[in-house]
Design brief:
The protein has about 140 residues and is mainly β. Helix content is about 5%, strand content about 45%. The protein contains 1 helix and 9 strands. The protein has a 5-stranded antiparallel sheet with strand order 3-2-1-4-9, with no helix packed on it. It starts with a strand and ends with a strand.
Length: about 140
């Protein structure tokens, strides 16, 4: 997924004891904004207003079809791709990139853990709409 990094916020106490220490605000080419959590603080402030490509992983709760009941909500609407391989070199990934599914949206492809999908009867090609209150950064690289 390609986006412009607009802002980095530090989240946590001064000792960094909260699991997510950076929150990034990005903007896709479509104009849609997204909030991304990153507990490993991969991106520095030097990359603000730069274009990056990233793999994003939404947290889907027990019922991702329900609207999130939190201060932040993001709608993922697109075609379910089924099992999906991310062939490119994402050597900086913080997670295992095997055993993933994909949802193709206007903004790009979201990574979905196969463990989330086992409880749903969704077929490849189906239109899906998920709601999430957390999106994590899997991997990223600078484009421009």
């Amino acid at each position: 997924m390609k986006l412009i990094l607009k802002k980095i916020k530090y989240v946590g106490d001064k000792n960094g004891k909260l699991p997510y220490e950076h929150v990034y605000i990005g903007e896709f080419e479509t104009g849609k904004k997204i909030q991304i959590e990153d507990y490993s603080c991969q991106i520095s402030k030097d990359y603000i207003n730069r274009k990056i490509e990233c793999l994003l992983y939404p947290y889907l709760g027990k019922n991702p079809y329900e609207r999130a009941k939190s201060y932040y909500e993001y709608e993922i609407k697109g075609e379910f791709l089924g099992e999906y391989s991310f062939f490119e070199d994402w050597s900086e990934s913080t997670r295992d990139l095997n055993d993933l599914h994909g949802v193709k949206t206007e903004e790009g492809v979201f990574c979905i853990d196969s463990n989330y999908m086992k409880d749903f009867s969704i077929k490849k090609g189906d239109l899906v709409i998920f709601f999430t209150d957390r999106i994590s950064l899997f991997a990223w690289r600078l484009i421009e």
